[in-house]
Each structure stands twice: as C-alpha cells, then as structure tokens.
C-alpha cells in the first residue's frame, strides 16, 4: 500500500512508545519504575467525576456544538479573564479533544505551505510534527542550560524571516520545567509586536509552579500583543484529567471559527457529558489543584536532592511542571542509547532527549509516587556506577 508522503515526514511519539514498552514489561511481571509519562498519578477529583456522572444520568449523551458546550466556553472565557487578565468571550474559545488537539487544529487553520513556525528547543515533541503535517516549516532555535533553556529576544528576532507566521511559547515548559519570568515574557512580547508575528502560548502547566514563581500570560502584556496571541490550555495536568481529553484554544474570533469548521469535519464535539466535569473543575474551589501541587513539590525536592548526589549527570532546577531534564553528556552516551540501556538493565523508563531536540539529555517525570521515585533513582544511581 502506498501511503501519503506526509506520513513519512513525521515520527511516532517516543514518549508514548516508551510508556507503552514500560507498561508491557509490567504486564509481563517485570518491576519497572517509570518516569516516562507526563501524567499525574492522582485520580480525577471526585467532584469533577460526580458532575460528569450527573450529566450522563441527565441525558447529556447527544451531539453538541462542534466548538463546545456554551456553558463550558463561557466558563473558560471567565477563567481567562480572572486568572490571566485576557479579555476573551465565549466566541473566542473552542473546546477540543485535549490540548494537543487544540494545537493541531490551530496549525491546520493557520499555516500555508512554507509558512515558518519558530520553536525553541528543547520542545514538546509534537510541536514540529504538527507544523510539518500542516505543511509548515519548523524553525528550531536551540537553547542551553546556561540560559535556563529559554529563547532570548535576540534569538527570536534573528529567527524571524518574511515567512515567519507563528512563534510557539511553552511556559512552564515540557520537558525542562523552566518558567519564563514576567520580564522575560515582556521582552519576547516586544519582539512579537516588532516583527508582527503571531504567538501561541501553551499554558497547560500554568498552575504547577514552585517557590512563588509567577506565570505571566504573554497576551496580558499589552493590547498589541493580545491581538497577536493565541492560548492553548486544557484540564489534563492541573486537574489530573488526562484521559478525559478536554482542552481548549482561545484567540481571535475569526481564527476560532476556522478551527471550529475544521473540527466539525474531523472529531465534531468533545464528549458531551465529560464537558460538564470540566465546568465543575473551573467553577468549584481549587483546593484539589493545591493538594496535587503540594505533592509535586515534595517529589521535586526529593528528585533534586538525589540527582545532586549523583556523578556525571546534572540539571537546572525546574520552576514548574513535573519534569527534570538531565544532562548526560559526561556519561559519553547519547540519549536513546542511555534510555534503552537503563530500561533493559535496571528497569527504569525515561524519555530520550532527542525526542525534544536535545540528544545530550533525558527527561524524568516525577508525576508518580515517592516510593517509585526513590526506588527508580536508586536504580539510576546503580546504573551510573556500573556503566561508568
């Protein structure tokens, strides 16, 4: 069978592949410590599940508007006004099948063949693949640990060309956990306006912040930036709703209508009764978010303390999300070889940095329980000692 050429232009998700391999090993009775998936280990808070159950029992099982339930779109718009000071209304919001789907819809609605999209590396592995599938050209801008894995205004300016359409900003970051300070956001915003480009701000980890670090949404900087800003977000990380597949995109009304048209011919509406769980997530007290954040904070400290005691690996201190991005240059191994050997010999699953655009690093997720973290880091330390 001859497949479309676009299929050969993208690679399968390494994060999903390694997570699947780890699960298969566990199914075979092997004790695997997995640091692979970016998925909180907590159950979805009960009040969210109850709201979805009530909607199910009330017959909310039919087709709904392609752009999402009106009540949920209103709730999201209100959240953006209250939390991020972004003046959106419901018409500026589309509900999508997860945050990933919101970005995929955006690329399809926005990009023509040859349009360039600036992506700082390390990056979430799906960004360049989505751009490629939509016919655009990813422009990768490398950053370093010394710069906090953050793109600078000069780098952004230098990467812009007449073909530049979009800049992807992810803060807090997957895979590094780094957070752009308000001043850094303002400096990047100035370049966005100066170069007259669009920016999509992926804010899926915005509520997972440590040590009083502040998240500033780039659209809040000024009206000129707001007009050029698109927000991607969702419920997976902050509310532990990964399997619910509910995300959203917010931006210019014409753009949102375009993504709604695309969605109407692909997935149609997001699961109707699940959207009522998302409404409850936004409109109920946020205690559940803080409880999970406190657990992540303890795990973060435990991981950093252990890593600092190991030789030949290092990482900057993450300020958000639930990842550490370990530099393994001193081991003499590249990321895929390192992760394969670690999984096969010591049954620890990690994600190779090559998936994120940096082959000298690996990503560990601490969205798992402390006993697994401690046992997995014991094994990582033994691996380093035995192989080096």
UniProtKB/TrEMBL annotation:
Gene3D superfamilies: Aspartate Aminotransferase, domain 1 (3.90.1150.10), Type I PLP-dependent aspartate aminotransferase-like (Major domain) (3.40.640.10). Pfam families: Aminotran_1_2 (PF00155). Its EC number is 2.6.1.-. Residues 31-380 form the Aminotransferase class I/classII large domain. The keyword Ribosomal protein does not apply. GO terms for molecular function: transaminase activity. Its cofactor is pyridoxal 5'-phosphate. Keywords: Aminotransferase, Pyridoxal phosphate, Transferase. It comes from the Bacteria. CDD domains: AAT_like. InterPro entries: Aminotransferase_I/II_large, AspAT/PAT-like, NHTrfase_class1_PyrdxlP-BS, PyrdxlP-dep_Trfase, PyrdxlP-dep_Trfase_major, PyrdxlP-dep_Trfase_small. Coiled coil: none annotated. Belongs to the class-I pyridoxal-phosphate-dependent aminotransferase family. This is Aminotransferase.
């Amino acid at each position: 069978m001859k497949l479309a050429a676009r299929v050969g232009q993208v690679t399968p998700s390494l994060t999903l592949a390694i997570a699947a391999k780890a699960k298969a090993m566990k199914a075979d009775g092997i004790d695997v410590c997995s640091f692979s998936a970016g998925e909180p280990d907590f159950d979805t808070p009960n009040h969210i599940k109850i709201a979805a159950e009530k909607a199910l029992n009330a017959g909310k099982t039919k087709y709904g508007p392609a752009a999402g339930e009106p009540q949920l779109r209103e709730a999201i718009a209100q959240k953006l006004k209250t939390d991020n000071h972004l003046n959106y209304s419901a018409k500026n919001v589309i509900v999508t099948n997860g945050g990933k789907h919101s970005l995929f819809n955006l690329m399809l609605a926005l990009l023509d063949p040859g349009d360039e999209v600036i992506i700082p590396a390390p990056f979430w592995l799906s960004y360049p693949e989505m751009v490629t599938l939509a016919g655009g050209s990813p422009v990768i801008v490398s950053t370093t640990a010394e710069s906090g894995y953050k793109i600078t205004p000069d780098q952004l300016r230098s990467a812009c060309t007449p073909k530049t359409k979009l800049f992807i900003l992810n803060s807090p970051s997957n895979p590094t956990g780094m957070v752009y300070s308000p001043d850094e956001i303002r400096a990047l915003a100035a370049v966005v306006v100066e170069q007259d480009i669009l920016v999509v701000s992926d804010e899926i980890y915005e509520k997972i912040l440590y040590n009083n670090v502040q998240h500033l949404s780039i659209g809040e900087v000024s009206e000129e930036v707001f007009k050029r800003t698109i927000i991607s977000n969702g419920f997976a990380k902050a509310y532990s709703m990964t399997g619910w597949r509910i995300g959203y995109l917010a931006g210019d009304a014409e753009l949102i209508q375009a993504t709604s048209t695309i969605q109407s011919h692909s997935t149609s509406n997001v699961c109707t009764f699940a959207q009522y769980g998302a409404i409850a997530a936004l409109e109920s007290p946020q205690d559940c978010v803080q409880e999970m954040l406190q657990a992540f904070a303890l795990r973060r400290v435990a991981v950093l303390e252990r890593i600092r005691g190991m030789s030949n690996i290092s990482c900057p201190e993450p300020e958000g999300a639930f990842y550490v991005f370990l530099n393994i240059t001193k081991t003499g191994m590249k990321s895929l070889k390192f992760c394969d050997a670690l999984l096969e010999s010591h049954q620890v699953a990690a994600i190779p940095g090559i998936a994120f655009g940096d082959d000298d690093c690996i990503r560990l997720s601490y969205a798992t329980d402390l006993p697994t973290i401690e046992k997995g880091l014991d094994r990582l330390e033994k691996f380093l000692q035995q192989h080096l």
